[in-house]
Amino acid sequence: MSDLYWLTEEQMARIEPYLPKSHGKPRVDDRRVLSGIVFVNRNGLRWCDAPREYGPHKTLYNRWKRWGERGVFLRIMEGLAAASATPKTIMIDATYLKAHRTASSLRGKKGGLGRLIGRTKGGMNTKLHAVTDAEGRPLSFFMTAGQVSDYTGAAALLDDLPKAQWMLGDRGYDADWYSDALRAKGITPCIPGRKSRIIPVKYDKRRYRSRSRIEIMFGRLKDWRRVATRYDRCPTVFFSAIALAATVIFWL
């Protein structure tokens, strides 16, 4: 098949430092298996439908599940982002990811976080909160149920914000506590005030225009079918798909 996806040797060299060490029996070819994992996630396939050129589908699935649970894919994205980002200006926003009926069971394991799926006007959704650099490349993610406020995501991502001069956000992030927290970190907020404010908030309108880049980032992530529609019940597995898509699209 001519339309198969293959990671290049250069891309593998960049990923290699973040992969788990192989102990005992050598692993099956990392390049072949990871390329197959990318292909399945990008095209929204069932694992059993993976092209045979990538090897046994059980090998792909087992590697995907095992490394996802260990946070390998998120570690790759964050490592590459930390090495290449331009965080003078950062941006924050959130988007909804529709949950397929196979993923939308709301009952999770006891003591767990649940499925991180909630009911909104648009149906059953997961909400993805993200911080990007000045070019709209993702630096960090946080995932919640769809009905959760943007403030919750903003608070969760606050501690991991890189050193930056500006933070761009829409009116959904206009809160005194958030602006104060940003300034305490040496970051100047560029966030329009809510229409309900009596005293208008001043912000740099020219700088704010570049916030469209984070919207473009979400659109590109949703080009991957396993990101645009959530098929996985396990939130860790779905979060791994998001991290993998972000890595391939923006950091490799």
Question: What's the quick description here?
Answer:
With 252 residues, this protein is of the alpha/beta class. 40% of the residues lie in helices and 16% in strands. α3 crosses α10 (235-251).
What does this structure look like?
The protein has ten helices and seven strands. With 252 residues, the protein is of the alpha/beta class. It folds into two domains: 9-19 and 26-70, no CATH class; 86-231, 2-Layer Sandwich (Nucleotidyltransferase, domain 5). Helix 6 (176-184) links the parallel strand 5 (166-168) and strand 6 (188-190). Helix 2 (30-43) packs across helix 3, helix 3 (57-69) crosses helix 10 (235-251) and helix 4 (72-84) packs parallel to helix 10 (235-251). It starts with 8 loop residues before the first helix and ends with a helix. The mean pLDDT is 91.
Give the topology:
Layout: H1 9-15, H2 30-43, H3 57-69, H4 72-84, E1 89-99, E2 118-120, E3 123-132, E4 138-145, H5 150-158, E5 166-168, H6 176-184, E6 188-190, H7 205-208, H8 212-221, H9 225-228, E7 229-230, H10 235-251
Parallel strand pairs: 1-5, 1-7, 5-6
Antiparallel strand pairs: 1-3, 2-3, 3-4
Helix pairs in contact: 2-3, 3-10, 4-10
